[in-house]
Each structure stands twice: as structure tokens, then as C-alpha cells.
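ugh ok fine here u go
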Amino acid sequence: MYLAHIKDKYGRNRFFIRESYQGEDGLIYARDLYDLGDDPEIFIKYVGPKGFYIDQDLDEAVRERASSYSYDDLEALFWPFLDPYIKATIKNFSHGHIHGGRRRFRGRSRREKEEERARLKESLDQGLHPFDRRRLLFLKFGQINIEQMLDEPFPFLEWPLKRSRDEIEHTIGFMELELRPWEMRGYLYTIFNIPEHLKPRQSRFVPDAQDLDAIDGYFLEELCRLNSDRTYLDQGAMELDTPGVHPYLRKYLIYYFDTFFHSQGAGYIGGRFRKEGTHAPAKSSYENEEEYLELFGLTIEEFHAMDEKALTSLFRRLALKLHPDKGGEHEKFIRLKDAYAYLMRRKGW
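structure:
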């Protein structure tokens, strides 16, 4: 499939989803699958602060008409029209780390499609670990409240089914580097299933409304359960090098206790992430700025000249070198995280 952009006889822009196909004479032709009109963005449905999906009626129509269909391919067609803020997250699922399976839907009846959906749901229910499901749902949609999504057979959730545990952990680890410091708090809160422990409270999706000691207990309970869960640590998991917490889970202890829940910053307010953090310092307070710039290898002039993308890219490169799972020093990694959070706030991002 591809996106076609034309001007009609009145000079107005129009967009079409088209596909190339081979005719009976062996030649390659093109045909329209869907008329998007003059504003394709209206078919993008945003979910939470970072997620999106394509209008279901459009999705169904293209599935029915296309000779070969992939939801990832459909998402990719709308790439030029996406909110720039969510492109990094969508890239992980549609253009980078994770790809959904390719299926053929042309000519299938509604019953056959329902059966396909049921088979996918059964495969996910049997083969997808709940921890992986929660991680992927948050990374995709950026929401703490994922309760309504847990039973949905999203195609991108198929990705881990035929992967080793080691591949899953390394791939998700790279995706986690896309999270900003203030997003990590909600991520940990969600993936360790803390809202489930707080039912039926209406406030269970707001971390700041909870007792921190109680959250500590729920977090450790869930982490210990994972650490002894053979359905999680199977199928190609790295062997445990020393007794205790598995290396796949140690990073979450670091994130939780040293960086996010027990240090300043990283607030979650009113259902959306708050960029400046819960305890953002006054803009006149720059007492550690020189040290933070040194950690990034920057002069003050270089820092002022950087845009958000450049600073984030530099942080990710340094984080890969300093991460404890990669042989880096624990304290330097924590300081780097602190420095990144501060410099982002310093820029007003």
C-alpha cells in the first residue's frame, strides 16, 4: 500500500490509499483502496498523551479491499500527519522495534474475520506474559489506565510470541530509553500492576494520590513474584549470574528507588504527564548545572544551542554506556538521569 497525493480539477489537495497489483496480463497496475479526502489527519484517533490508532471504519474498509494487508503498513501511511510529539513512540511499534504480523483479509466474511480475531486473542491469552502486555500497552499508548485494553487482541502484541525472553527484554529496554523521566513514574506504576492492588478506588490511576509506603510494598511484591515466575524467565532467558534479583529486573529497582519514586520530579497530574515534574525547581536555581553539563560533555554555549531532539539523543547514547546492565557504574547512571531531568526542565521542555 502507498499514499497518493493529487490535486483535483479545482486545485484542491486530495489523498488516496492505493496499492499496486499484477494484472492477468502480467503487468503492474494501481488501484484506489480508500479516498482520504483533503485532510487525512481526521482518520487518526489519539489515545492518551502518546498513542494513536487508525479509524476503525477505514481500517475495516482497507482490510476488505487490499490484496495484502498489514496494520503496520496502514499506520506508516499516516506518518507525515502525526503529532510530532508521539512519533518516537509510534516509530518503535510501526517503523522500528516492533512489527505486527502480515495477514490476508481480502474476500473474508465477517465470520471469518471474527474467527481470526478470536484465534489471535487465544494466542495472546496463552502465550503473552501479562508483564509484557502491560509494558507494551503503556509504551504504545502512554496511559496508566489500561484496564479497557487488556483484553483487546491488538496485532502489535503478537510480537513477543515467537521471541526469546532475552530478545524481548533487550528490545523493550531500548524502547524504555524513549521514556522521559517524568513518564517513567507512570510506567513503573502501570507495569507492576499497582492499580490492581488499589481497586476499587477511583483514584487508583493517580500515583500522587496514593500512600508511598503502600506503593513500595506492592512494587516489591510484584517484583518478587516476577523474579520467581518461570513462565516469565523461560524460553531463552539469560542465566542468573548470582542469587537474588534477575538482571532483567534489577534495572527496575534502580529506576524505582533511586530515581523516580524517592527523588524529586516526575509528577503525574490529572491523567496526563506534567512536564516540569512534581517538584520542579525555580528557574533561578542552577546550583548543579556545571556538574550536569560536564556529565553530558557540554559547554553552556553548546547546551543553549541544542534542541530537544539533540539533547535526548545524546542522553540515550550516554545511558547505553553507563547503564548498570551494560557494565556501567550505578551512581554515574543515576546522576546522568538526574542531569537529564534537570536540563530538560532548564530548557522548559
